[in-house]
Amino acid sequence: MVKKSFISVISHEEKEENRGSVAFQILSLTNRIRKLSSHLELHRKDYLSQRGLRKILGKRQRMLSYLSKNNKIRYKELINQLDIRESKTR
What we know:
Layout: H1 12-17, H2 22-42, H3 47-70, H4 72-82
């Protein structure tokens, strides 16, 4: 299994203070998504992990849309730091 580096955008002091913040939750979901993606590269038929990945992706998408509605500047910074695509607007 290939170990990929996971992003630590938030400093250690901020992690302990702001574990409930939307930005921290999006960061932790992104790390989980990257871990599951690397797992699924090796185990293509692990359907339970695929389902879990889809659930985590949906949760992160909902949190990103919430953040984009409430704090556009922080949303843009987080998207750039995590190197993920911007969500499509309907």
